[in-house]
Amino acid sequence: MKFFIDTANLAEIQEAYDLGVLDGVTTNPSLMAKEGITGDDNVRAHYKAICDIVDDKVSAEVISTDFESMVKEGESLAAIDDKIVVKVPMIKDGVKAIKHFSQNGIRTNCTLVFSAGQAILAAKAGATYLSPFIGRLDDISFDGLDLIQQIVHIYNVYGFETEVLAASVRHTMHLIKCAEIGADVVTCPLNVITGLLKHPLTDSGLAKFLADHAKASGK
Ligand code: G3P
Fold first, then answer.
1. What is the pLDDT of residue 163?
2. What is the model's pLDDT at position 219?
3. Is the CB of 61 under 6 A from ligand 1?
4. Distance of CA 81 to CAs 47, 54, 173, 183, Å?
5. How far is ligand 1, taken at its centre, from the CA of residue 53, in Å?
6. Does ligand 1 come within 6 angstroms of the Cβ of 165?
7. Sign of the Cα pseudo-torsion (55, 180, 110, 161, in order)
8. How does pLDDT run across 197-215, given as a tens digit for each residue?
9. How far apart are the CA of 133 and the centre of ligand 1, in A?
10. 87 and 60 in contact (C-beta within 8 Å)?
11. Which end of the chain has fewer CB atoms surrounding its CB within 10 Å, N or C?
């Protein structure tokens, strides 16, 4: 199971990378805006800065919505660094763009996926990654994890190579359930990754070990 961090914050990306468990980064226009990154040159420089931290797989999202512009923008994003994965929304022209990129050796991440039908289309088009949004489905009283399970099953039945990248992951239980289901990748905020560390018995057990060692050493 791969861990991607879902942020454009360089310090958080560095912290997750330093932990030694990071496999990639996902961003979106909202996350870039949150960091105050605007303007084409600044956006490109920021993607390059992210690529310089991690080993591979940095999703950079197109903001175009027609086929020709998506292809032009995606090719331009891919030219920033070999680590870039072009993130494309699940719309009609997006599916065409994913097909184009897959035929031209550019990796893609199909985003804003909320149904199994969309997942099948993206896989048929040759998407490298598929991003179903768990939390946003939960927000409207649909079970986002049920969708992950359904897509993993369908992809396994047909041997689709598209990797299921569970997105909109809000807490550690989302991540753990995705692991049980067999999602290939989870992308989440830093606090979800570091949240996996926490257990009160670890903390109290370590405190006792250290106290016993200090007592035995006469400290
Ligand atoms: O990767 C998609 C993710 O950024 C959406 O998360 O929490 O805004 O639904 P959220």
1. 98
2. 77
3. no
4. 9, 12, 34, 26
5. 22
6. no
7. positive
8. 999 999 999 999 999 999 9
9. 7
10. yes
11. C
